[in-house]
Amino acid sequence: MSIVYPPGAISENPWIVGRLAVGSPRLRLLCLPNAGGSAGSFADWRKVLPAGIEMVPVELPGHGTRAGVPYAESVPELVAGLLAAVEGELAVPYAVFGHSFGAVLGLELALAAGRRGLPAPRAVLVSGACPPHLVRQRPPRPQGDAELTEWLRVTGGLPEVLLRHTEYVRQVLSTIRADLRLAEGWDWPVPRELPFPLHVLGGREDPVVSPAELEEWAEYEGPELTITIHPGGHFYLFERPAPVLDSIAEALRLP
Questions:
Q1: What DSSP string runs through the chain?
Q2: 112-154: per-residue pLDDT in tens?
Q3: Which of 104, 109, 138, 163 has its CA 20 to 30 A from that of 216?
Q4: How many CA atoms does the CB half-sphere of 147 hold within 13 Å?
Q5: How far is CA 110 from the centre of its chain?
Q6: Residue 227 pairs with which residues in a beta bridge?
Q7: Which residues pair with 29 in a beta bridge?
């Protein structure tokens, strides 16, 4: 069930797996996966990435190729480790894209970079994620095997063929639980005024985060805010990646 990457895609930095490098990137796009996801989630983006964008998929501890690494114990620990790992990537213009759990993690990363006096992102793109003030109002998600497996089935988090592989599903469920513990145990102290542009994306038929909930991101002020709704469910960004990447390029003003 592993992703096969082309030569050169695996870097010496274990936090970055599947980089799509370009000679002189106009923009470096850091990509943070959903709960239970991995850097391999973005593999199909390699085929349709707009010219000039260098994709940098992030592999979190305990995920994907780092399955043997202990999970982070807290969001601050995870953000601190991530920032240290990608600090050298911020020397060129960059943006941060995060889906679901990765979305607010991406926001925290960008804010932490600012506190450190590091270059600010051109923008943060949050995908399929409730704004922090709504996350606090949601009840905890049931974390039993049956409930999480059904959630994966309903949301399309794993293809049906993979759901038949018990050992693989068990590992995915373990990773999802670790991410949910972080997400539900953290108060997400994201300020309502952001120092960078914010672009919000989501799926029109998403059963996890509705378009109405995505509109609530308008509560967060910054230099710029856009909200773009694409056809599809919670994993719309992998169902039809080309138009999603085109809309990202447009939001970032990359012709």
A1: -PPPPPTT-B-SSTTBBS-B--SS-SEEEEEEPPTT--GGGGGGGGGTPPTTEEEEEB--TTSGGGTTSPPPSSHHHHHHHHHHHHGGGGGS-EEEEEETHHHHHHHHHHHHHHHTTPPPPSEEEEES---HHHHTTSPPPP-SHHHHHHHHHHHTSS-HHHHT-HHHHHHHHHHHHHHHHHHHT------SB-SS-EEEEEETT-SSS-HHHHHGGGGSBSS-EEEEEESSSTTHHHHSHHHHHHHHHHHTT--
A2: 999 999 999 999 999 999 998 887 677 666 677 888 888 888 8
A3: 109
A4: 7
A5: 13
A6: 200
A7: 55, 95
Question: For residue range 166-207, what is the model confidence (pLDDT) as tens digits?
Answer: 888 888 888 988 998 888 777 777 888 999 999 999 999 999
Buried b (16+ CB within 10 A) or exposed e, 142-177: eeeeeebbebbeebbbbeeeebeeeeebeebbebbb
Crossing angle for the helix pair 75-86 and 166-184, to the nearest 10 degrees: 100
Domains of the chain plus CATH, in order, are 27-251 (3.40.50.1820)
pTM: 0.91
Q: Which of 105, 114, 100 is nearest to 37 (CA)?
A: 100
